[in-house]
Amino acid sequence: MKTIAILALSLGIVQAQNEYVSIKKEIEQSIARGNAWLAEQQHEKGYWDDGGLPAFTALALTAAIRDPNIDLSDGDLPDGLKKGFDWLIGQQKEDGGIYNRGLAVYNTATSLTALASAGRSEFEPTIVKARRKLIGSQWDIGEKGETDNQNDGGIGYGSSDDHTDMSNTYLALEALALSDTVIEDGNYANEPSLDWNAALTFLSRSQNLTATNDQPWASDDPKNKGGFIYTPGSSKAGEDITSDGKVALRSYGSISYAGLMSLIYAKVGPDDPRVIAVKEWLGKNYTVEENPNMGPQGLYYYYQAMAKALNATGIDKLELEDGTMADWRKDLASKLLSSQRENGSWVNDNGRWMESNPVLVTAYTVMALEEVYRSIR
User: Fold this and answer.
1) Do 228 and 169 meet the contact criterion of CB atoms below 8 Å apart?
2) Taking a C-beta distance cutoff of 8 angstroms, is the pair 100, 107 a contact?
3) Where are the beta strands (DSSP E) in the chain?
4) pTM
5) In sequence order, what DSSP letters do the residues of 32-78 get, joined into one string?
6) Which end of the chain is least crowded, N or C, by CB within 10 Å?
7) Tens digit of pLDDT for each residue in 173-201?
8) Domains and CATH numbers, the chain
């Protein structure tokens, strides 16, 4: 009986692998075409699109370095990647940030992710300095060590007088989590640490879930319960009026996937009510046709956040509201493959958050496809 059970399990694994053989090959080819188009857009000096915003270069480099089609086993970077990383490192400032024209956290976080993804020891001094910048950008207003302000624990664009938000916080948490191994090997002693407890408080205050959110605006109305909003007290998706006449801040797709991933980075377990609630909201609002409650706005940001979050949480199929299971890999990959342009790029017809820029959108999409590719065991 034990032998039969092992054979059945093995057969199930093989069938699951075979299920994705064709689409995995299509994804591989699509990634190659997307990265080839991106390589053609690189400037002679090594950057992509706009040197004032290193994030464009960082995203293109992340897409390239994670490409399953390239072989880096000999230890050498292709000339284009080497030139790109050299340029990116050259933008680091005295405070450790990698930025030029503002948006210090956004640019530094995306750059740190690119550098960490390369896995190269010569990048470590740059990585360590960038980590310090992000850790130092975590807010602690009022009494030190107390989360007595709704912004405490979160991270904003870099200024000390604007606000914190889920997008910058998730990008910073991702970059820090991916680069943890650099400081864990003991080569860099006495490096600062993020206050992860405060970060978790901020995440909780950005989620519509009254059981764990201590803010008065939090709502458990069926439309929004479990989902995330942009920053405590404000949603980019607007408001809903609940059945009892109260105002609820509307949860939306891209930031809810960012919230799920941030909870994972904060080492919150799958049985935690915050994780359960956001997965339920995502299941109720599952789609690859739009960014839920935002329509076409930020659509490709949504796609890459979706792919990263579902892969990071190990979700094979996402349970929907009616109890059926969505094959998110096939759904998302098919949507992205069908929208690739003849020249290998992607672009959003809706230009909000710079998504009319094909360099940005192509990098987002290649990264999303790479997540789908890696999630197929």
Assistant:
1) no
2) yes
3) 155-156, 164-165, 239-241, 247-249, 318-319, 325-326
4) 0.93
5) HHHHHHHHHTB-TTS-BS-TT-HHHHHHHHHHHHT-TT---TTSPPP
6) N
7) 999 999 999 998 777 878 999 999 999 99
8) 22-375 (1.50.10.20)
